[in-house]
């Protein structure tokens, strides 16, 4: 049972590794995507078959074929690993790009909001200055001064109102971007903890370094593990076959003795049968 389970897991790992590898190679050679998919698929199948064939025919295989297959399998494993690395790197870059684009848009909106707030502050200071001039004048002059300020005051109040309206619209645009930024930060969060744990700093450079190490660790145990499990399954099947052949080695002699018994030549009992087994 364990041999079939090992073989099934090895094939499943190989298929998944092939998918990641082919997808990664297709992004590298995007102009020839279909040919790359076809070529990658048949090479992955050839790699799996070569591993099983080489193990089962190791003793009788000519040296030239044996060493070529070893080199070919190693190169194909390297290609698969590089394709997987490219696919995972592309996914990380796309995620980082989305986060960067969201951050840029959000920064621009926040700068516009801050500009509108400065307009409001300037207008309010101008109104405060006009109020101070009125307060420092006597009653008659204050009335005349306030009348002369009416147009300017109206313009300042209108400017404050327009700025508040602009801030409201900009904040409405910024809200979904802030939510998206928080969501993307949560997605990046685990790798930040990994960077803090392994490097001690989650700055952008260390974050990228941590991502590369995680991808490399995945690559190291992905396709190589599939090949090793495939070899292990072949070892298990060979041992199982040898055991089965050994268990049945007594059958020819027992059959011969049984035929002799029928002919009346010898007599055998159950203890003798047990001895043969």
Question: In words, what does this structure look like?
Answer:
- Helix content is 88%, strand content 0%.
- By secondary structure, the protein is mostly helical.
- It has one domain (2-239).
- α3 crosses α4.
- The protein is rod-shaped.
- Mean pLDDT is 78; it is low at 272-277.
* Helix content class: over 70%
Helix and strand run = HHHHHHHHH
Counted by DSSP, the helix tally is: 9
- Residue windows where pLDDT falls under 50 for at least 5 positions: 272-277
For the structure shown, list the relevant keywords:
9 helices, single chain, rod-shaped, 277 residues, mainly alpha, disordered C terminus
In short:
The protein has one domain (2-239). The chain is built from nine helices and no strands.
Write the layout of secondary structure elements.
Elements: H1 2-28, H2 33-56, H3 63-136, H4 139-148, H5 150-198, H6 204-220, H7 223-247, H8 251-262, H9 270-276
């Amino acid at each position: 049972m364990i041999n079939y389970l090992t073989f099934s897991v090895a094939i499943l790992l190989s298929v998944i590794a092939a998918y990641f590898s082919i997808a990664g190679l297709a992004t590298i050679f995007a102009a020839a995507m279909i040919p790359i998919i076809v070529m990658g698929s048949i090479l992955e199948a050839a790699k799996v078959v070569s591993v099983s064939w080489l193990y089962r025919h190791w003793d009788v295989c000519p040296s030239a074929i044996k060493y070529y297959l070893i080199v070919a399998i190693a190169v194909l494993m390297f290609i698969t690993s590089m394709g997987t690395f490219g696919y995972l790197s592309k996914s990380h870059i796309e995620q980082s790009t989305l986060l960067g684009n969201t951050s840029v848009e959000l920064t621009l909106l926040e700068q516009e909001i801050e500009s509108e707030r400065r307009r409001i502050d300037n207008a309010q200071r101008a109104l405060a200055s006009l109020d101070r001039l009125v307060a420092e004048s006597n009653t008659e002059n204050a009335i005349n001064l306030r009348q002369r300020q009416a147009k300017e005051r109206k313009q300042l109040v209108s400017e404050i109102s327009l700025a508040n309206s602009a801030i409201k619209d900009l904040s409405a645009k910024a809200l979904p971007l802030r939510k998206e930024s928080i969501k993307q930060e949560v997605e990046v969060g685990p790798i930040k903890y990994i960077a803090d744990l392994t490097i001690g700093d989650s700055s952008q450079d260390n974050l990228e370094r941590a991502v590369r190490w995680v991808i490399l660790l995945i690559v190291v145990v992905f396709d190589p593990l599939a090949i090793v499990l495939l070899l292990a399954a072949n070892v298990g099947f060979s041992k199982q076959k040898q055991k089965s052949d050994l268990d049945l080695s007594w059958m020819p002699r027992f059959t011969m003795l049984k035929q002799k018994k029928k002919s009346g030549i010898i007599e055998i009992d159950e203890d003798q049968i047990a001895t043969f087994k």
